[in-house]
Amino acid sequence: MKPLVSVVIPAYNHEKYIQDTIKSIINQTYENIELIILDDGSRDLTSQKMSEIKPDCIKRFKRVYFQSKENEGISATLNKLTELSEGKYILTIASDDLAKPELVEKEVSFMENNPSYALITCNDEIIDSEGRLCYWDKKRNIVYDKKKAKYLTFADFLQKTSKVNFNSNEFGTYKTLYLGNYVPNGWMVRKDVFDKIGKYTKEAPSEDSWLMLQVSKYWKLKYLDEILFSYRWHENNTVKDNNVMSDVGIKTRTYEEMILKNINENEVFPEVIDVKRHGACIKKTGIPFIFEICKYRKGLEKFKKYKIFNIEI
After folding, report:
1. Do 60 and 22 touch, CB atoms closer than 8 A?
2. Which residues contact 195 (CB under 8 A, 6 or more apart)?
3. Domains and CATH numbers, the chain
4. Model confidence pLDDT, tens digit, residues 56-102
5. In this structure, are residues 182 and 285 in contact, taking their beta carbons and an 8 Å threshold?
6. Which residues pair with 182 in a beta bridge?
7. Which of 15, 117, 120, 301 has a CA 20 to 30 Å removed from the CA of 191?
8. CA angle 182, 139, 248 (to 5 degrees)
9. Burial level of 306, CB count in 10 A (0-12/13-18/19+)?
10. What angle do CA 293, 295, 299 make, to 5 degrees?
11. Residue 237 and residue 154: Cα distance in Å, rounded?
12. C-beta of residue 96 within 8 angstroms of C-beta of residue 17
């Protein structure tokens, strides 16, 4: 029998989108799925929309768990979703995004045949608030004409700005993720990795960045070069607030530096140890959270204009 997959949705103020997100999971070609949704104290009709579609979910999935709770924040919500999950794999999807029908099937197939990998993701098309396919110009404004687009997909944007070749062994390595998270949405992770890396924490509020950094210390990550996910770009996307994202990134980076200080060097990939013995500084590229590795004792003068972590100049 194919392994159980836990699809988890942390829902918050997405009354307009939550049913479409759920329907995209109902339409998965992979059968053995449980669906777990926690509404984190939404102030709109998100909880009501969940209830309306629950009968269809009970017919479709092996197990359904919907709950509305007081607002606790994303880290606490993700921890509860993980604890409630009974699957071998966990697929996390935001309550405004969409999964293509073959997403779960293709990601499970790879993971089952490649046990050295702990996390897999894919390419994401970009859709607008009405679900229409769109693209980005150089400032991530929506355009509908490919000829006017700088970035055709979310992965296209991430690959170009991170300068990481997603189809190479460079993808998902700690030394590249340490410079900033570039893993597209639509990722699936083995549940048992949390036994090793622990829980999400509000001390690292960029929860995706925290997860990718922890996983990449011990296992490999895989990118499927296929559009299997729809990333919705609308006026309420949190990542559009540069001030908030800057604070989130710095807090997460500070927490990661603490983890590195106490890491068991006998358990992690050699490159993690190498990064630990270097410092990092924010590189002014115009893109939040792009970090640049620099040696402790070589060429530090040119980095004086940056905020340095773990380095005294």
Report:
1. no
2. none
3. 1-97 (3.90.550.10)
4. 999 999 999 999 999 999 999 999 999 999 999 999 999 999 999 99
5. no
6. none
7. 15
8. 45
9. middle
10. 105
11. 14
12. yes
